[in-house]
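User: What would this chain look like folded?
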Amino acid sequence: MFFLVSQQQDSDHLLHESMADPNHQSLSPPCANGHRSTVSLRADQGGTFCFICFSNLVSDSRTRTVHVSYALHQLSISLSEPIFLRTVLSSHIHFLVSPLVHALSSIDDAPIAIQIMDMISLLCSAEESSIGEDFVERISDQLSSGALGWSRRQLHMLHCFGVLMNCENIDVNSHIRDKEALVCQLVEGLQLPSEEIRGEILFVLYKFSALQFTEQNVDGIEVLSSLCPKLLCLSLEALAKTQRDDVRLNCVALLTILAQQGLLANSHTNNFSSMSLDEVDDDPMQTAETLVARPCLNVLFAEAIKGPLLSTDSEVQIRTLDLIFHYVSQESKPSKQIQVMVEENVADYIFEILRLSECKDQVINSCLRVLDLFSLAEQSFRKRLVIGFPSVIQVLHYVGEVPCHPFQIQTLKLISSCISDFPGIASSTQVQEIALVLKRMLERYYSQEMGLFPDAFAIICSVFVSLMKTPSFAETADVLTSLQESLRHAILASLSPPEKDSTQILHAVYLLNEVYAYCTAPTSINKTSCIELRHCVIDVCASHLLPWFLADVNEVNEEATLGIMETFHSILLQNSDIQAKEFAEMLVSADWFSFSFGCLGNFCTANMKQRIYLMLSSLVDVLLEQKTGSHIRDALHCLPSDPQDLLFLLGQDSSNNQELASCQSAALLIFHTSWMYNDRLADDKLVLASLEQYIILNRTSLICAFSDSPVMLNLVNLYGLCRSLQNERYQVSYSLEAERILFHLLNEYEWDLGSSNIHLESLKWLFQQESISKSLTYQIQKISRTNLIGNEVHNVYGDGRQRSLTYWFAKLISEGDNYAATLLVNLLTQLAEKEEQENDVISILNLITTIVSIFPTASNHFSMIGIGNVVHRLVSGINNSSLRTSFKTLLLLVFNILASVQPGVLMIDESWDAVSIKLLNFLSLRDTAIKQNHEDVMVIGILSLVLYHSSDGALVEASRSILLNSYLVSAIKTVVDVACSKGPALTQYQDETDIGEALAFTLSLYFFSLRSLQIVLAGAVDWQTFFGTSTSLETLPVVCIHCHNLCRLMLFGAPQIKLIASYCLLELLTGLSEQIDIKKEQLRCSSSYLKSMKAVLGGLVFCDDIRVATNSALCLSMILGWEDMEGRTEMLKTSSWYRFIAEEMSVSLAMPCSASSAYVNHHKPAVYLTVAMLRLKNKPVWLGTVFDESCISSMIQNLNGINISREIVILFRELMQAELLNSQQVTKLNRAFQVSNSDKVSRYRF
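Assistant: Here's the prediction, encoded as structure tokens.
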């Protein structure tokens, strides 16, 4: 604060010679006026300073001002010398007090007065000085007497007095003789028109008041209190009129002191009345009427501070704002004062200061402190806040960047108040601006970059809630993005505060609730941005809030617990949302039922009980996908808080008590749902005992409600689950009476297993009960019908997963420790015997097919209990029965069973041979070749599987019949001939017709027949006949496709045909190779025939399909081996194609890019062919050129753990056998194999 520099002094007599020290000996001659040397001092600069002469000079009013000024100047120079000053202070200082005060009070010349005041200040501020009190006493006396009047001399005295009062080493208070007279004179002086004098007076009054209150001077405080009303009135008038900032500062400083001490508040009670009576007496110009017309203090105060608030000096603005704060805050009930100032537009001035503040911290702090008080006047301040809203947003940017800013809360409160009171005031730009700032604050708070006060965190959450209610909130996508991030940061910050604060989680959850309510409102639920926001809420709950809540529930108070559960409940109420279903499953996987009753134990209140049971009812609705949760809601008011009490209610007779019956239904539902997800609320022994008691006591009501009540099915599930748990522990303690009643109900009354929700263990226990076979057979038929129409409900639970009833029924059959498979096959047998109800037959066949598809091992169980006999019966009567339309379904079932059944099972079941022969006969009865229809293709596929099993010794007789079937020989020949006749147009022909599927299945049948020949017709087939011409085909006893036709299909066929034909040719040549090796035969084939085959196979070595290329290379390798045995390899010596293959492979393996295993695999076909050529007796000479020393060295250098394969090892072994590796290369090769981590080559060493 700016303080005026003025002090006080007193002067009432002049210096005389008698004041000199008589004991002091003269060290120098007297001065020119004859004064003794004892009152003189010699200066360091030369000459002597006589204090009596100086006193006479400055005290004589007739002395010319130039002489006075010179004397003061010379004294000032002398006092600047330390020795001189020290001597003056110790011996001669009292010679100067009276003359200086007298001169100051009698001289009008301002420069001389300034010189005198500087001199006094210098003397009083010196360390050894003790003369300041004398100056204070003399000057205060002068001011108190009023003798000088209000003139320029009085102004100098005031200023000097102010300077003295500002000196800390002067005891001012004790040396003012008449405080009341002094203050009265000063207050009267405030009425003078001179702003200079008012400024000096205000400063003196300010310093005087500060001294009284600091030193707790009772007399001074009483003086100020008595004169305060008049002083306050005159000060405010002076403040309102002045345009000088220094006067404003002094006046504001005085008023602030008075406000801090409560004198302004006391003035309100007096309300100028006492002051007015005195003034009427003292001033005849004032009347009672004029005083009544004077504005009240609050209005006068409001008008007075507007000028300082508009000042360009920020110091004046800050001090004025502080004055407003103290003025209002000292009131016990400040609402009236605030109301007046707001109505007088003071808030507008403050908002303008904020706008122009340039984010200066001190200015912002002072403004916000006052505005926070103004906000108490809610109604009137709201309108002013709307005007200043942009300025507050500007301040929010600054406050949001400062960690723990002292006025963080006040700024946020202003933002919140404006948005909540006037939702439409914020534009979309402002909403986006506010959201970004708040998001950044929460983000930095969560990352611990900045601090937030607890109340600030709460207000931020509240501001976001208010923002969501503004019309312009969702106009920009960035706002919703900011809301998502803010929500996440708020939750995370509240879950891990440096110091536990339970209120933060409460506010964060409040925000979470409001956000979810916003994005699920009817007007926004289908908007893309709101869907993303809803997903964000659920993700925050699932990923962060739920795990924390489960782990720290004992540290959360009841209010926060209720808030969190309310959020979770809101999510569950949106049960059509997939994420809501996932969230519900997450809850039950975390044992939510047990957790909920644990919360009831911690907070056993009506609100908690209601919230928990309502949430459990919604959880049941979502999980069971039925509105079964209504049972819990209906019994809400009478349900207990302890699961043990639920069991007690369950074991009671409710025949004549509807309320108890409602509680039992709810209890069954709760235990049923919790146990479905392995959340055991009570021991299974206790639950079983209660269930048995419930069944026995309520048997009559169960009969009435069994067929149409899902609660009864819940009873069956719970009972079966408890019994299965006892069986696992080898405990057989149960009630036979209860079991008999339940089985009777299951057998005699209709129920639907597919419409209920059941646990896997309970389902398994049911199918282990032979006593209810009749009922279970009926349920299987229902399952098959549901599976047929595709409307099956996912309602079986086990292993923590919810699967379809068909899935778990299939699992039961695959496990085999129940009657499920037997009941299913018996049902199919019954339907087959009746030869009616084809739809039921088809549904059963489809169900078995589905079961085998899900669990292939189930085919073994079906086969062992005689499903082959049923299939044979159905196949046998397919042409003369009403079951003709089920043939396709039957074929699909047979195909799936044969594709998955173990050969050992087929060996002990002769019915499958009969089935195979029946299907072969079905195909043979066709009057044309194989048709391109579904039935023919499926039969061919089944016959292929029969041949496949024959290689393991199963279905041998059926396979022999297939191989020697004349129809198949003719049909396959026809299909292949038609395809081969198309030549290069075969691919186009396949695209335009359906021959592709028939050809693929025909080739597959041929492939498996080649594999079966060596088992079924071992030694009876001459493999060399497959090289014969087409005219010799009729003499062949088995199904046959010649090699040249296979080559045509490989060359011209579609990719799928190429692949199957290549496998057929490889299988054929492998069989022929084995025959040649065993019988030591020579190849009965012309060179031209082999040449054409080699041309096709050589070209396919570079086929895009690596499998076709590999098969072609292996076939070509066998042909080269046969030719080598007969010495027919001369063409290799001149063949550029084989050399090209070898060179391409060697160059590729020698390049550094061959480091990847995929690249090496691409060259495997060429490796196989190169190895075959290296193994020839008559090797081509050019192999040595291709695999020269540099090439092999590069290949070895590129070897690593990735690209070393079995084929590469064999290649280098053959190169070594061909003596194309030197010793150094062998050493490097061994080292490369040792370094490699590949297990495939660990055994190789050269």
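The CA atoms of residues 54 and 71 lie 7 Å apart. If you want, I can go into more detail on any region.
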